[in-house]
Specification:
The complex is a heterodimer of chains A (215) and B (221).
Chain A: H1 6-14, H2 27-32, H3 37-60, H4 70-92, H5 94-100, H6 102-105, H7 111-119, H8 126-156, E1 158-159, E2 162-163, H9 178-214
Chain B: H1 2-5, H2 20-64, E1 70-77, E2 80-82, E3 95-101, E4 107-117, E5 122-130, E6 135-143, H3 153-156, H4 158-162, E7 172-174, E8 185-187, H5 193-219
Parallel strand pairs in B: 7-8
Antiparallel strand pairs in B: 1-2, 1-3, 3-4, 4-5, 5-6
Classes of the chains: A mainly alpha (215), B alpha+beta (221).
Amino acid sequence: MRKTTPREDFLAGIWRENPVLVTALGLCPTLAVTNSVANSLAMSAATFFVLVGSSFLVSSVRRWVPNEVRISTYILIIATFVSVADMALAALVPDIHKALGAFIALIVVNCIILGRQEAFASKNPVGRAVLDAAGNGIGFTITLLLMGGIREVLGKGSFLGVPLFGPHYEPWVIMILPPGGFLTLGVILLSLSAIQRRRTRRAEAAATGAARRAA
Amino acid sequence: MNGADAPGVTTAPQAPRVSAARLVVTLGGGGALAGALIVIAFLLTLPAIEAHRAERLNAAIAEVLRGPARYDTLYVVGGALRRDPPPGADPTTLEKVYLGHAADGKPVGYAVVAQEPGFADVVRVIFGYDPATKKLLGMKVIESKETPGLGDGIEKNQTFVSQFTGRATPLKGVKAGAGKGDPSEVDFITGATISSRTVVRIINNALARLGPALKDGAEAP
C-alpha cells in the first residue's frame, strides 16, 4: 500500500472515502435520526467524539493488545466512550437526548467506528489515527447535516426549528417519517453518482484528447 | 496454526504465542478501567440529569394544575394517600400524586402521572384533576413516540390538548365534529384516533383506580 500523507489521511474520510456516501456504512443513524437538523447535529457530535476518542486510544494501546482479544478491546473502548457521550448528552441537552433515544446507545455498533479501528487506528501511529478519525467524523457530520437539512426544510418547513416559509406552508410530512429518510438518501446518492459519472467521462475525454494531440 | 505446531515443519514466521494470562489481564484491566471511567462520568452527570428530570416534572405539574402556589408530593400506598412513605419502602419506586395548593392554602387539585401503551410505544400522561367538581384541570403528554405529524398531535395539537381543561370525567372520546355538546366529550384528532383514544383511556383508567383515594385525600391532608 502506498504511504499516505497526513493531509490525505484527513481528507479521505471527508469526501473521497466518505463513510456514508461512498462506503455506505453507518446507514442506520443516517436514516433514523436525521428528521431534524438539531438531531443530526447531536448525533454527529456524539459519533465524532466516540470515533476520535476510540481511534486515539486504540492506536495508543495497539502495541500491548494481543491480536486474539483486539476486537473485544475495541468494543470495550468504544462502548465506554458511548456511555460517556450518552450521559453527557442527557445532562447537557436533555430534549435532544430524548429525541435520539436508543440510537445513542447504538453508536457502539456503528460500522464506521469499528471499521476505522480495525482498518486504520490499530495499524497506525496516534497522530494519523486521530486525523483519519476526524476526517471520517466530519464526513459523517456533513452527510447527516445534509440529510437533516433537506428533511427538516421539506418535512417541517423549518431549519433548526426556525420556520422558513410562513404559516401557509403545508409540511411534506413524509420527509420526516422513515420513508423520507430513504427517499432523501436515495436522491443524494443518485446525484453524487451522476456527478461522479460526468467527471469520469470528462477525464476520459481529456485523456483521449491529450493522446490524440500527442500523436 | 496446526502446521506450525508440528516439529520440523516451518511455515511463514508467526507472532509468538500469547499466554492466556496475558489475554485475561488485558481484557480484565481494560474492563476495570472502562468501568471506572463510566462510574466517574455517571457521578459527574447525575446531578444535572436529576435536575432536568425534576424541572420537567415541576413544569408539567405547574401546567396541568394551572400554576399552583405550591404542591405536596403524596404517596399512593394500598389505594390510599400518605404524606410520608411507609417505613422500609423506597420512596422513588412508589406511585405518587401531587396535590396543588392555591396561594391561600386551599387545595386546587391533584396532578396524576399515568401511562399505557399507545400506537407506537408507551404514552405517559400527566393530568390535573379537581375531585370537588370531578373535572380535569389540564393534560400534558410527557412521553410518547407516536407517529410524527399524525399521532404526535396528542402532544403538539393545541386544539386537542386544550380541550381537556374543564372536561367532566369520566371522559368520552368522540370523532371530531360528532359530539353532542356533552361536557365529558373529547374530540379525537382526525388521523390519530388510536393515539387520541389512548390519552382518554389513560385518564379514565387512572381515575377509576385512584379516584376514590383522591377524594379522601383532598379532605384529609
